[in-house]
Amino acid sequence: MNKEQSVLSHAEALEQLAHIRTVTAEKRQYGYHISPYFLLWGIIWLIAFTLPALFPISQPVSGMIWTGLSISGWVVSFIAPWERQRRPLFPRLLVIQMRFVWTAWFSIVAVFAFLVAFGALALSFSLLSLYAVLLVAMMYLLLAVVLGREIFFMGMWLLVLAVVTATLLFKAMPLIFGVIGGGSFIVVGLFLRHKGKSHA
User: Fold this and answer.
1) Phi-psi region for residue 122, left (φ > 0), alpha (ψ -120 to 50) or beta?
2) Which of 61, 145, 155, 172 could be a cystine partner for 140, CB 3.0 to 4.6 Å?
3) Sequential pLDDT tens for the chain (200 residues)
């Protein structure tokens, strides 16, 4: 009887291990397919944050640059030329997890917008940049549920960066957020692409 239980336990262990490997491969594959979004928005952040920091650009012009780049980014994201390639059908659990992540994140964005609109949070161009980085950090923390601990560490890194920059290096905030914040997007995009390439 013990021998039969041992064989059964060994078979169950192998089955669980195979399941874990399958789920890991699916998540890496999903990360590979969303990596272009991180690369795109990393470049947008890099340009939009660093231009006003390096050149004498007024806030209205800087705002126009942000608006133009953001609209372009959303248009490209929705058109998503890379999505025209044949893309596998992902498991229902993974799709549900991603829906939860985006629903939670947009809910947080809505709360931020509500607090700003009713004066509970101060609003200026610099603070708007800070809020954007904080929201992206929260997005990373939520995405870690699906994409793994590396994304969680990136979210924690952005939170620490935002707090330290706002506290000690406020005047240099646009340049730091552009180079390090935008660079973090690009690094994550390249990381997800490399990690999931063998499963694409």
Assistant:
1) beta
2) 155
3) 455 555 446 566 666 666 567 666 767 777 777 788 888 888 998 888 888 777 777 777 877 888 888 888 888 877 765 554 545 556 677 778 888 888 999 999 999 889 888 888 887 777 877 888 888 889 889 988 877 777 888 889 888 888 888 888 888 888 888 888 888 888 888 888 877 676 55
Q: Of 144, 158, 156, nearest to 45 (Cα)?
A: 158
